[in-house]
Amino acid sequence: MISSIKATVPTATINGSDSIFRKRLLSPTQRSLFLPPLQVDSSSKSEFSLSRPLHISNVSCFEPVRVQKSLIKCKAYEAEQSQPIEREEAKSAAAQKVKIGIYFATWWALNVVFNIYNKKVLNAYPYPWLTSTLSLACGSLMMLISWATRIAEPPNTDLEFWKTLFPVAVAHTIGHVAATVSMSKVAVSFTHIIKSGEPAFSVLVSRFLLGETFPLPVYMSLVPIIGGCALAAVTELNFNMIGFMGAMISNLAFVFRNIFSKKGMKGKSVSGMNYYACLSILSLLILTPFAIAVEGPQLWAAGYKTAMSQNGPQFIWWVAAQSIFYHLYNQVSYMSLDEISPLTFSIGNTMKRISVIVSSIIIFHTPVQPINALGAAIAILGTFLYSQAKQ
User: Model pTM?
Assistant: First the structure.
C-alpha cells in the first residue's frame, strides 16, 4: 500500500510596498534555476492589486524537479545462455590457429624456394658476398617503396633505435654471409643439418659469457644435437671445411644476434615486418664495403659473363628470385613471431629445417648415406627436445 502525506506549509506573505522585491518578481528576464519557463500570453491581461498582500498558498510546486534515474537491472541467466559466447570464443581460437597455420606454411614454402634458387645462383655464380648483398638490397628496396607508397606504415624510429640495432645488424650480417658461403661450398642439406645445432651454441654462449644457468633437461638435449651434427658431418660425402666452418660461424653469429636483439630492443615499438626491414637496411650498409673489398667488381663482371653464357637469361631470374624470397621468408618469420610464443616459433623453425633438408635432397639429387640421414634425424630431434626443455 502506498500512502501520501500532504505537508502543510505556512503561507509566505509578500508585502506589496516592498518595491525592490516586487521589481525582481515582475521582471520577465529573471527566472529561477528551479522553475520551468513560463508561457506568457500577451493577449491576456492579468491584473492584480499591489495594495493587498500576495499570498502563496503552497511552496511545494517550487521544489526542484528530481529526475528519476533509470535503474540498471541485473539478471541471472541459465548456463545454456552462455553457449553463443563460447561459440564465438571457439571460432576466434580456430581462426587464430588457421592464421598461424597459414603463416607457418608460407614461411616454410618461401624458405624452401629461397634455398633452391640460392643454390642455383651459387652453383652458376660462386660469389657469396655479392649474392648476400643483393638479397639485402632487394629487401631494403622493397620496404622503402612500400613506405613511400604507404602500402606499409613507416616505422617511428630515432637515433637511439639505430644505435641499439647496430650490434644486431652486425651479427645478422655475419650470420647471413657465413651461411651463404657455406651453401656455396657444400650441399644445402648439409648446411642446414649443421645449422640445426644453433641451440647448442645458444646454451654455451649464455652459460659461459652471460652466466645464465639452465635446467638439466636443457643440457641433456644438447647431447643428441651435438652427436647428430657430428655424425652427419663425418659421414657427409661432399664434406668441405670452408662450408662446415661457414655454417658453424653462422650459428654463433645468429646466437649473438638474438642476444643483442633481446637486450637492445626491449620497450621499442618497432617490431615484426618493419623491424626486419630496418635490420636489412642497416645490414646492407655494413656489408656493401666488405663485399667490394673481398670480391670486387672485376670478379663480379667476369663471373656474370660466364653465368650468362652457360645458363642464359634464366640466371637473372634466379638472382631476382633468391633475393626476393630471402626477404619474404624472413619477413614472414618475424610476422609469425609477433603472433605466436617463442616455443611455437622454435618448433616451427625445427620443422622448417626438415622441409628444407628433404626438399633440397630431392631437387638436387644429393647422395645421402643411411648413417648420414640418421645423424640428421638425431640432430633435428635434439633441437625439438631443446625447444621443449627450454620452455
Answer: 0.72
